[in-house]
Amino acid sequence: MDFAQARNPHTVRFKDDGLIPNHPRWPLVIYRRAVNLDERYDPAAEIEDLFEANGWGDTWRNTIYDYVHYHSRIHEVLGIARGKGRVRFGGKKKGRIFTLKADDVAVLPAGTGHQCLGADDDFLVIGAYPPAGTYDECTTVEDRPRALKSIPKVPPPRKDPVYGAGGPLGRLWKTTK
Q1: Which residues, at least 6 apart from 114, have a Cβ–Cβ distance to it below 8 Å?
Q2: Beta-carbon neighbour count of residue 175 at 10 Å?
Q3: Which residues cross the membrane (predicted)?
């Protein structure tokens, strides 16, 4: 069963804000209404299956933390299974707030700050990671020196978590500097 719906990506680049480095070259990618959730099935399982079919694993079900953080050694995808939430990407100083709703997917390059500012009670997020990289969680200015070295070294994923090998992510996250 194919749950992905062809959508144009919305991209946003964030500058380093002093605490949150963000990625020096690659944008946050948001696909609106990218997943065609079928009411007959568990929406979280549908999103997990989609991500895993495209090589993104270590899936989890939860919400997005209510404090600003980022990952310096791995990229992350967030798929919204239920509800809606206000999420700030990019950090407190240089970031932007987006409302993410069921069927939306956000793909965060390493270094992208993210924080849930508020959400419906039923807000359910499915997260996953590409096979290359190691999970870490950075929240303080002390994390910066190591993060600034690690972030540019995280390789682009082989596949877009929603659209696979031919998806827009490969074009948007080119390896050229």
Answers
A1: 64, 65, 68, 69, 70, 78, 87, 88, 89, 108
A2: 9
A3: none
Element (H, E) at 148: helix 144-150
How does strand 124-129 pair with strand 57-62? antiparallel
> What does the DSSP assignment read for 65-100?
-SS-BB-SS--EEEEEEESEEEEEES-TTT-EEEEE
CA-angle at 60, arms to 106 and 134, nearest 5°: 80
Distance CA 148, CA 150 (A): 6
Helix (H, G, I), strand (E, B) or coil at 145: helix
Dihedral sign, Cα of residue 117, residue 163, residue 48, residue 40: positive
Residue 168, domain member (yes or no): no
DSSP 23: -
In a domain? residue 65: yes
CATH code, domain with 113: 2.60.120.10
Q: Which two tokens stand for residue 136?
A: 């870490």
Q: Which pLDDT tens digit goes with each residue over 112-165?
A: 999 999 999 999 999 999 999 999 999 999 999 999 999 999 999 999 999 999
Query: Does any domain span residue 4?
Result: no
Q: How many domains does the chain have?
A: 1
